[in-house]
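Agenda item 2: WTA complex prediction
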Amino acid sequence: MTESNMETVLHENRVFNPPAEFSRKSHLKSMDEYKALYKRSIEDPEGFWAEIAKELHWFKPWKQVLDASEKPFFKWFTGGKTNICYNAVDRHALGPNADRKAVIWEGEPGDNRVLTYKELYHEVCRFANTLKSLGIGKGDTVAIYLPMIPELAVAVLACARIGAVHSVIFAGFSAESIKDRVLDGRSKMVITGDGGWRRGSVLELKSIVDKGVADCDCVEKVLVVPRNANGDRFDCDMRDGRDVWYDEAGKDQPDECPCEELDSEDLLFLLYTSGSTGKPKGIMHTVGGYSVYTYLTAKYVFDLQADDVYWCTADVGWITGHSYLVYGPLQNAATIVMYEGAPNHPDPGRFWDIVDKHQVTIFYTAPTAIRAFMKWGDDWVDKHDLSSLRLLGTVGEPINPEAWMWYHRKIGKERCPIVDTWWQTETGGILLSPLPGVTPTKPGSATLPFFGVDAAILNPDGEEVETGLLSIRKPWPSILRGIWGDPERFKKTYWCNWNGEYYFPGDGARRDKDGYFWVVGRVDDVVNVSGHRIGTAELESIFVEHPSVAESAVIGVPHEIKGQGLVAFVLLKGDDSEGSDALRSELNAMVNEKIGKFARPEKIIFCADLPKTRSGKIMRRLLRDIATGNALGNVTTLADPSVVESLKGKYKD
Ligand code: WTA
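Presented output:
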C-alpha cells in the first residue's frame, strides 16, 4: 500500500448521505433494510442465495446451493442447469422488454448503432450459429480480440449461448500476449476484427493476431468481424482455410439458436490477469454462481431501473467489462452504452458529450480517468448538460478523496451518490461497495460488504486488526473456481494464509470505527497502473532477456494520474552502470512487444548494483523508499549499504 494514500485517507472524515429523493425510488431504501438482509445473507447464505437465484431462469433446478466438500474448490447451485445468455438476452427478448434498447453503441468517429433486446437476440443467435458452423461447440475455448464494437458483446454472449468458453484478450495486448493466452487456454478459434478506431487511427488487430497465432497449433479458425456495419472493410490479409469473414460466414445463418442447457459449474470463461509471480493466470469463472452474483450486484449497486441508461466505460477485455458492461446489466434488462474510442478524442469533452447525447443516467468509470479529466480542465465538462446523471461509480483502484470530491461536485453536481466498488477479476463481482440509496459515503472508502460477503481485516496471525490484510471468510457465488491448468497455484495464491479458512485477495486495508473499509492497495508485487494489473515479475523477466541486462527490479510508485506507475532498476552486465537512451528504447520496445504499450515503465534507471540482503534477496522496500523520497527504512540487513546512496543520486538525476 502506498503511504501517501494511507496518509490522505486517514484524515478523511467527510460523510455524504444518500439524497432522500434517490433513496425513495431505489430498490433498497434504508440502512435497516441493508442490515437485516446482510445479517440473513451471512447467517443463512444458502437460503439467501437460493432465493435470489430463483429470480433467474433455470432449465433444471439445482440440488445443492453450496458444495464446500472440496474446499477451496467451491461449487454453487450444483445439479442445476442454466445459461447466462438466456438470462441476459432471451428472457427479455422473448418477453415484454423485446423492444427495449439493449445496446446503444457509439464509434469513435461518431457513428451510432442501437440494438433492442430482440435485435440483440437475433444477432447473438446468428453469431452462435456461425460459431457452430465453423466447428465450435460446448467446452471449446474461443479467444476474442476485438475492438469495442457491438459484436464484442455479441461474440461473448454467443459463446456463452453454445457453452463455448470465451477468453477475451484486451485489444491493447501484444501479439506475444495473445500467443501466451491462446496456447494456455488451447483456443480453437480467435475472433478478431479488421480494425477499430483509437485516437483517430485504425488499430490493425488482424495483423497482430496473425503474428500471435503463427505458432499456435490449437487455432483452427480466425473469424474476422468487419468494424463497419455498412459492408466497408479495412484491408487485411486472409489466410486460406483458416481465416473467415464474419459478414460472409454469418449472413445466411439462421437467427434462432437454442441455448445449450449448461451445468451450473460448466466453465463460462477464462480471463487472464497478472499475479506476483510468473505469467498471467487464467482465472476461471463458471456459469451458475457468476450469473446470480453479477445479476444481484448490478441490480443493487447500480440500482438499475427500467428507464436507466447505464454506461460502464470499461473495455470488455477486463473483468469490469465482463461483469458490469455485459452480463450484470443485461441480466437486469438494462440499456447499456458502449463506446469504442478514447476519452479525449476529438477533444477531452468526449465522455460528457456522450452522456449528454444519450442521456446517460448511471456512469461507471475508473479513478485514473477521473484524474485525467480533472487535469484537462473543467471547461470541457461545463460545455455539456449532465443533468440526466443520477448515479456515479468508480472501480479498479483506490480513489483519492480529491478526485472523489471533484467527481461529486463537477460531474454529480452534488446530487448523485457515488459507489466506490472494490473487487477483482478473481471475485467475479463487487464485494465492497455502498448501496446508493442506503449507505452514507466517505470519499475514498468502498464502505461496506455486499450481501453474503463476510469481510475482515487480519494480521498474518489471523487476528482482527484495524489496519492489515483484507480477507473474506465465506465463499460467495462468483468466487473464482481456480486458475486454468494450475490448481496448486490457486491454493497457494489465495488460500495459503490463515489455514485456508479465508480468501486472500492481496490487498491491504483499514477499517474505521463505523466498520467502513478503506482499501489502500496491493500488498504483493502487483502494480495497478491506470487500473491495469501488472506483475513486476513479468517486466523483470522481459528485461533480463536483453543480452546486456544482468538483473532488474521493478517497483510501483505513486503516479498523479495513473494511480501507480512503474519504475525499473536495471543492472547491466559488465561494468556499465550508465546504459544509454538507445538501450532504454530497446527495453521499452521489448515491453511493447511482449505485453503492450500500457505496461511501459515511467522510468528506467541503469545502475551498478541493487540493494540486496546478505542472502541475495532484492530489497524492493528500499527501492520504493528511494523512488518516493521517503526516509530509508532499516538498512542494516543490506550486504552493501553504499549501494543505496548511489541509487538515490541516480534516481534524482
Ligand atoms: C484494485 C478490477 C481500491 C485492488 C475490478 C484489486 C481497488 C485490484 C478497487 C483488482 C477499489 C479494484 N478501491 N482498490 N474500489 N477496485 N481495486 O482484477 O488492488 O483488474 O485487488 O479487477 O484492483 O484488479 P482487477
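Discussion summary: The first strand starts at residue 64 and ends at 67.
Owner for follow-up: CH.
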